Amino acid sequence: MSAFILRETDESDDEMDYVTTADRKPLKKCKIIESDDENDVKRKRKRVDHLDEEDYDLIEENLGIKNHPRKKFKRLRRIEENENDEEEQRIIDKRTIENDLFDTTFDDHEIQVENRQMNPSESDDEYSDDDNFIVDDENRPIKTTPMNNALRDLFGDDLDDRREFDIERSKTIFEVYEPIELEKMHLTDKDIEIRSTDVPERFQLRDIPVSRPEVGELEEEAEWICEMGYFPRIVEEKIKGVLDLMRNQNLEIPFIVRYRKEFVEPELKTSDLWRIFQLDERFCQFRKRKSNLLQIFKNAPNLNFNYLKWARNFDDLNDAHAELILNNREVKNRKNDYYSLILRTGIGDLADKFGLTARQLGENLRDNYTRHEIGQCLVEPLKLSRNYINDKFTSSVDVLKAARFIVATRLAHEPLIRQSVRASYLDRVTLTVKPTKKGLKEIDESNPCFSMKYLKNKPVKSLVSEQFLILDLAEREKLISIIFNIDNRTYLNEIKHLYHRDEFSRNVHAWNDQRFEILELMLSKFLFPIFEKELRSKLLTEASECVISNCATRLRNWLNVAPFGVVMSIAYSVDIDTATYCALCADGEMLDFLKLPNILKSSNNNSEILLKEFIESKKPDVVVIGAESREALGIIGNIRRIVGELKDFRSIPVELVDNELSHVYANSKSSENDFREYPLLLRQAISLGRRFNDPLSEFSRLCNSDEDILCLKFHPLQNSIPKDQLLRALYVEFVNLTNSVGVDLNKPISSNLVQFVSGLGSRKAASLLKAVNPLQNRSELVTVGHLGPNVFINCAGFIKIDTKLNDDDIDLLDGTRIHPESYDLARKMAADASDCDEYVIEEVFDHPEKLDYLDLDDFAAELVRQGFGKKESTLYDIRTEFNHPFKDCRNSYQSPSVLEKFEMLTKETPVTFYVGKMTTAKVFGFAYDRNGRNRATAVKLRLENGLFGLLAIRNVSDQFVFNLEERIRVGMTLECRIIKIDMENFRVDLSTKSSDLRNWRPLRDDFYDRYAEKDDRMREEKKNIVRTSFNRVIAHPSFHNISCQEAEKLLLTQRQGDVIICPSSKSADHLSIVWKVFNGINQCIDVREEGKINVCSLGRSLWIDNEEFEDLDEIIARYVRPMAAFARDLIGFKYFRNGGSREIMEKFVIDEKKKFPARIPYFVSIYKEFPGKFILSYLPRIECRHEFVSVTPNGYCFRNRVFRSVNALFCWFKEHFRDPIPSVESRCNPVSISRRAKTRREW
């Protein structure tokens, strides 16, 4: 391969001189001198140091000096002296740089002027006496101006009049653009260095660039990667081989995947190689930090570096760093922290008497047995501490406390102890989540944190996907608090025997107590807070990686679609006054477009004619419509009908496509630059068409300096993760697929994809495209494109050359994925398979089946014997390329599924739109009975996202609704819950029943703490209780600012059915309506207020459950009075008894049975425990039965049925008393009694 590069380089020595200074040196500011020649373009000139007429008049008036300015000036050029040849070459090089950057040219006259400035001896004839030059004492020409004369008269003859006037010059790029703009355009010194360095650009752009390893470093790194847990030990040698290819040979991942399969397959996949690439960067960071720590502490005396040298991960580095810092602090003892202060008092000697050093205890914890026995001091700790009392610590207790702090600090900084405790902590730690006051108000069902706002002791290991990221975002918004818990006491009891002496003396017990307190202090104050911080960071990283992976997968699915040929795309607007545009695209370019009136208009006969003519003349392969709204489905139907009417075009598919990409592109700067004169909708249509032409190319247009690719919606949490990490993952998908498909540099559609070719990047790609236009063969990548050997090897095999459009002497292998390094193998295979001696490559391309007779396995074995390495996969790939050069392996296009169409048109996802979600909808009509009864059976609603909703009469209320139109009016906004989603018809079924609104909740986490939620709810309800002294301003005769208890007292003297309205004990947004059911029995009705002007006023709308009322009079008239009338009728029933309880009613029934044994006695009574309900007691045989009859505004509710009269109720009861009693009275259905039922003999 190197011979090929050198050969191509030798053949182009003359062309290599074309490489400009921009490819070798960083840009510097340079001066460009302009000419005053009459043929040059006139430029604006700025006069310096001149006085105007008013200034001269002022001088003449005060000094009597007359000095008028001259009318004409000749510009004096600054003559630079002593310019050597090196400086001259530097200016020429700078001129060349700007010429390359801005595509500007300089005429010969400007160059001559510049040469004159660099060579002062060469004078120009245009300077003469007429130009008002004078000569100074040293015979140098100077220019005299009126300003000079005036100032000389003012200040004397000592004024030095030799002025150098700066010539007017063009601004450099550093003066024109801001630094951030230069970075976007890749014009900084660093960009120039990257562009010119013969190393893959992505290797250089990494935070830690890929570098050559030291001796033995690859083995260490491969072992380190396996220890990280991402790969098993069995693939360690494969990982080492991949690292060698990357770091020693500068081969990028796509090249390794394609041309070094023997080194990776079958154990390692493409995703594994990118993981190794990322881990290589982490290993380099780890190694660099380790080296820096060794460098920092190398001069520190008496420090042990063993743990630092043995460190295998970042946690080990942190532990070793902490130990070194503590030891260095003890050696120098210069700081003024609490630890150093204690050491200076001498208490450190007492700390040495606790029996074990930090390292000994660490070894005990590591091995989980008493490896080192505890040495015991013979003096009790309190007595011993008296010897260390000083001015800072004046008592034995204080001294012991300080000594415990010293020992706990030393233990907490011991790496072995940290490793052991960290492992136990991560295995045992749990998570507890509680909402804050703000969270209680703001976390509703639509919040992703709703199912986790109460968690109790959830193991950290059970966190999945992006759960912790959701919790972390909620905590940042101060909606919840996250607490990491560990059973500290249990863990202490497990490890205390390792720091405990088994003796029964008083002295030993005292020292054991001190050691236990040290362990407790070490864990609670030092280690656990550190480990919690580490754990948070790790969990957040894992959750972010999960989101990034989901985003990359979504992009991969968008990109991995095979292209179409000629595409006709349609973009429309929901604004009926905006025109519709049709664009015809092929090979990524717009061929033609058609402007139509808005396609949503009903009268579109002319539009249909134009569409037919456009389709017939352009003959598209597919017609696509952007998913702007639900109306796109109707447009698709019309287009299919129009296509079906055309005889020769009935097979043209008509597809719906997501328009998110087209919206982003149409509003980007790239779109403005490409189609500045085109309207926004036409740009969208072009993007839709080009997406079907080649989705990979169209999506790549958003990969620019503005990072427009991030404007696409990949995941709900994509804005919560680091932008650079997400962008890097998305670009990896472009790199993988671009190199899988290949790039033709001569096609405009591929210009944005060149940056993703292996070895290249945005900088190298721009330079290459500028140099080679067009590219005739792969060798021109070196001779014309000036690519170095490393970059050429990486990219050559992925560059397509259309050999059909070039001369006959072109190498046909350039049109395949066969790499130039394998051309000799390909020619050898073709020669062995061909029957002739000449044009063997052409023959094999025409008859690739001849290669099937070659024994490639034997050929590969022979290559191994000859020392060419493993080439088996390469040989098979060569044969595949002879059969199908650059075969596109992307998936064929599939029409969107029902779910995908639903997401496109509604912009909803299963996360944002699901069964059980609470939503609001606006009433726009009713659905009526089909039997012609003209009775509304359902409510038609429109949701916020435009979907059609249907609210059936049975789902309006838990109680029976007779007249739907009286209860609900057109224009009302209802709060509903989704109970069914029909994606195919874009319709949802809704419910406004109180039971559904109140009891339907999303699935909660397995560790959800319902008891804590209940306690918080009760606590909140108590806080919201309104005091009786709170006065409401409500002008109504029945309203009183009293409590419910006081209202019941007032009703004692009132008639049955009378009403008192008073403030509610719930909150200021509620009222209580108390009405008298019977003597001593009152029912309290809760009324919810909405639209309140202030706290004291009455709400504009009043709600009882889900029924709305305009004012209090309507509630009394429509709600309370009907119930009172029904209750009055039942109280007046002949079998009514004033019992009030089951026991009393049972006694009435038994006594009646004794009187009339042949009958079934029954009685009805008010039930005191539930005001508003009546109890129906009867004795069919031996056991007495009790059932409830509820009084509602619509009638009597009994066994889920509603009866409008007492007679209808008991007639139905007598006929159906033997029927099974429903377990729950969920709803009441009306029953029409056309005639009186026959009375049974036993009643």
UniProtKB/TrEMBL annotation:
PANTHER family: TRANSCRIPTION ELONGATION FACTOR SPT6
Similarity-based family: Belongs to the SPT6 family.
Region (Disordered): 118-142
Record-level GO cellular component terms: transcription elongation factor complex
Molecular function terms from GO: DNA binding; histone binding; nucleosome binding
Species per Swiss-Prot/TrEMBL record: Strigamia maritima
UniProt cross-references to SMART domains, sorted A to Z: S1, SH2, YqgFc
Amino acid composition bias (Acidic residues), ranges on this chain: 122-136
PROSITE patterns: S1 (PS50126)
Keyword hit for Protease: no
GO biological process assignments: nucleosome organization; transcription elongation-coupled chromatin remodeling
Keywords: Nucleus, Transcription
Name of the molecule in the record: S1 motif domain-containing protein
InterPro entries in UniProt: HHH_9 (IPR041692), NA-bd_OB-fold (IPR012340), RNaseH-like_sf (IPR012337), RuvA_2-like (IPR010994), S1_domain (IPR003029), SH2 (IPR000980), SH2_dom_sf (IPR036860), Spt6_acidic_N_dom (IPR028083)
Major localization listed first in the record, in broad terms: nucleus
Subcellular location, record wording: Nucleus
Residue ranges constituting the S1 motif domain according to the UniProt record: 916-993
A UniProt-annotated Pfam family: SH2_2
Function: Histone H3-H4 chaperone that plays a role in maintenance of chromatin structure during RNA polymerase II transcription elongation.
